[in-house]
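Figure caption, in words: inputs first, then the predicted bound structure.
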Amino acid sequence: MQRTLVKAALAAEGPSDALRVQGWIRTRRDAKGLSFLELNDGSCLKNLQVLLEEGSPAYADHERYTTGSAIDVTGRLVASQGKGQSWELLADSIELVGAADSSYPLQKKRHTLEYLREIAHLRPRSNLFGAVFRMRSRLSFAIHQFFNERSFLYVHTPIITASDCEGAGEMFRVTTLDGKETDSKKDFFGKPTFLTVSGQLEAEIFATSHSNVYTFGPTFRAENSHTSRHASEFWMIEPEMAFCDLEGDMDLAEAFVKHLVADALEHCAEDLEFLNQFVDKGLLERLQFVVERPFQRITYYDAVELLQKSGKDFQYAVEKGANLQSEHERYLTEEHFKSPVTVYNYPKTVKPFYMRQNDDDATVAAMDVLVPGIGEIVGGSQREERLERLDAAIRAHDLDPEDYWWYRDLRRYGSVPHAGFGLGFERMLMFITGVHNIRDVIPFARTPGNAEF
Ligand code: 4AD
Ligand code: MG
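Bound structure (4AD present):
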């Protein structure tokens, strides 16, 4: 018999003929002549209650159906006598596919997130991580849908690269040399290579052939930041648009963030209800607000002035010309605007070489989208499309124009104004799920000192 997903069984419109479900037992409760199993197969948050009645072949072995075991059940859906579900499965027969003994680490009690991180191979079977990873999957789809509807081309940019897009020197080296050999000419690619920190530079190549493009892939940063918002391996979505300026870039970023929030509200309602109840009580209200209200926009200089006049006692002083610290970003979005806010036109000295210089000579056409609870989730800019200005910026950042010969060629042949941004997928997931630590929205977190699983 074909298998029915728990999700479909729970959504049934009436009692059924025989059907078959498979999954893992969350708990078993025994009563006189009866046994109740809570069965979950990951298709939805709710469990299917499976009823075993004395006398039926399904009941005979019921003591072997322990928490964590995998079973294959055939039975009929009947109206439930109990509260909390309309249907339950009256089991005719059960096969114990994979037993689990009492050492199974995910028992019914609530576990701490720290403990669950240590059992990342089992935590997807918990309610919280079941919900988070269903949402991660759904939102990956929504990302492709958003760009597909707008005729953006999906480009696969390389993971191994020789150029440091952000110029921050935070790259993981890729090498096949043993420790003693230092000549990179003898290395696999004949030169030093790294894991990419961003697909942007290659996305720009495709924007100058296919106009509107995006990448969605893993990126890697060897920054030694021990925060709840930094991972060494994270996924980034990077659209790039030809014939586009900073204004158009900010418009797209804001529409994109709203699209993902609206998609989650529409398609992940059950999981969001759960997260709202157990992780962050203000979650649903905040997401609704983000969908309904326009984002705020403010220039970097106005933001600095606002922060300096706030009277707030920051750990780091707000200095004109310096990067905004996370506490400053969070003050703007959480306390001042109480909504997402896009800060734009940053000083050129705090931003990478590729950003377009503004006429004031001091700032570049950069923008960051900040959201409550997290701070920066999007970083983007209009790109410098004028070759001389680009070369000057490359030199000002102590980089070698020779290394960027192909990037410079784009400015020599049919150069156009263009712009793009990067959305950190995990930060977006933190925002949409209310989960506070980036380690808990990625299946297997890589952070300094940790690459287990
Ligand atoms: O601001 P960033 O560094 O921008 C870029 O990489 C550009 N090349 C993007 C572009 O214009 N195409 O990173 C973009 C976003 C950040 O806003 C943040 O959400 C996320 O990537 N991010 C991280 N997420 C998790 N862990 C880290 N270590 C992150 N670093 C950046
Ligand atoms: Mg940034």
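The first strand starts at residue 19 and ends at 31.
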